[in-house]
Specification:
With 384 residues, the chain is α/β, with parallel strands linked by helices. It has 2 domains: 176 residues, NAD(P)-binding Rossmann-like Domain (Rossmann fold, 3-Layer(aba) Sandwich), CATH 3.40.50.720; 190 residues, Orthogonal Bundle (N-(1-d-carboxylethyl)-l-norvaline Dehydrogenase, domain 2), CATH 1.10.1040.50. Helix content is 49%, strand content 10%. It is globular. The structure holds nicotinamide-adenine-dinucleotide.
Length: 384
């Protein structure tokens, strides 16, 4: 199949590699020539490394790489049957690109955006034919992360959703379907992972080592502060801000002032040598597993907020139970699905603990999801 990708940054490069390795012909365009060249060199280096390691057969890297074409003009891209926009996260810039793709692409072509946070239905307004437009949200690094969220806009046809699923399945990805809600599944449910941890730190209840250590103890690959430093406090803050705005400033999503201050003072994390942890010195500054009573308490508080968010997404019909579980385990590597976790704790116990937080703080942030309460009243679990 012939795939067109606009934007040769982190995501465009990764998606191009995935499509090449699935045997597609890939046409890659970026307005910045250096980005295009970097993407090409990176893809070649990665394919060669895979061949050296024996992960792909001899001569395969060259064969895959031979199917990559760098394109000089956006309108030359439009012969492709599957077009993916992966440029910077800017609504106007994306709509301009999508408009050209829609005007020039053949009638059968599918047009997708890899946006993390913009409304798919709104972006689809750049198309005359909105039925062929949808969100296809890969995770970073696209070549390694199995999950792709498929997000139909209000007017996307079922045929286009099914066809996109089929293509991504053939690329070796696991797809979940999400409604066009701010943050889709993963970026929405994961908000409390960062924000509740920040709140606990702001309140002086526990320090970053205890909070992160408690997550490591529970089987997470990284704690919230380690992950914020990896993602970058600027990027992570921006996602918090976007979800907050897109939900009509629902107070439970209000971004943390502490994180904003980290951003303003350039304590962005690994990329600036200093975030919540210090990366500049020789000494390793990192958390160790923490099994203290305090660690278990703060972990449970964040976990409850994650469960509450997952329940609310299910309540609003954004995704199915099964897809919510897949999304959080494959998209952000949580050791267990959140709804399964709720069942293990006991839904009634979750509700009682969330209500205690609400009684203490009297903030909308700690409002229990109606679905959790209904299940508790019926003495049911999500899967039991
Ligand atoms: N990085 C992530 O972790 C991640 C994960 C999932 C989704 N996304 C989304 O994927 C998209 C791309 O993110 P990224 O991290 O690859 O960004 P990036 O900054 O690494 O790359 C963006 C590329 O787009 C190019 N570009 C900008 N405007 C353009 C235009 N008008 N026409 C052609 N090319 C243009 C830039 O030159 C750059 O090479 C964003 O929408 C982002 O939200 C990012």
């Amino acid at each position: 199949m012939n795939v067109g990708i606009v934007g040769a940054g982190t995501m465009g490069t990764g998606i191009a590699q995935v499509a090449l390795m699935a045997g597609c012909e890939v046409h890659l365009y970026d307005e910045n020539e250096d980005s295009q060249i970097n993407a090409r060199d990176l893809i070649l280096a990665r394919l060669n490394r895979l061949e050296e390691k024996g992960k792909i057969g001899e001569g395969t890297a060259k064969r895959y790489f031979g199917n990559l074409y760098l394109i000089d003009h956006l309108h030359d891209l439009t012969g492709a049957g599957f077009l993916i926009e992966a440029i910077i996260e800017n609504r106007e810039a994306k709509m301009q690109v999508i408009k050209v793709l829609d005007q020039r692409a053949g009638g059968d072509s599918i047009i997708a955006t890899n946006t993390s946070s913009l409304s798919i239905s709104e972006l689809s307004k750049a198309c005359r034919n909105q039925e062929r437009f949808l969100g296809i949200h890969f995770f970073n690094p696209a070549s390694l992360m199995k999950l792709v969220e498929i997000v139909p806009g209000f007017k996307t046809s079922d045929f286009v959703v099914g066809k996109s699923q089929e293509i991504l399945d053939s690329w070796g990805k696991t797809t979940v379907i999400a409604k066009d809600y701010p943050g889709f599944i993963v970026n929405r449910i994961a908000r409390p992972f960062y924000n509740e941890a920040l709140r606990i730190l702001e309140e002086g209840i526990a320090d970053i080592y205890t909070i992160d250590g408690a997550f490591l103890q529970e089987g997470f690959k990284m704690g919230p502060f380690q992950l914020m430093d990896l993602i970058g406090n600027d990027i992570n803050y921006q996602v918090n801000e976007t979800v907050w705005q897109a939900t009509g400033f629902e107070s439970r999503y209000r971004p943390s002032q502490l994180q904003k201050n980290m951003m303003i003072t350039n304590q962005l994390g690994r990329k600036t040598g200093k975030g919540f942890y210090d990366y500049a010195g020789d000494k390793s500054d990192s958390p160790a597993r923490d099994n203290s009573e305090l660690g278990r308490r703060v972990f449970k508080r964040v976990l409850l907020m994650l469960i509450n968010e997952a329940a609310d997404l299910l309540y609003r019909g954004v995704a199915s139970k099964e897809h919510i579980e897949l999304a959080m385990t494959l998209g952000v590597n949580y050791p267990k699905g959140l709804l399964t976790w709720a069942d293990e704790i006991g839904v009634d116990e979750c509700v009682a603990s969330i209500d205690k937080l609400f009684e203490h703080y009297h903030e909308e942030r700690y409002r229990c999801s109606p679905l959790l309460r209904d299940l508790a009243n019926q003495q049911k679990g999500f899967f039991t």
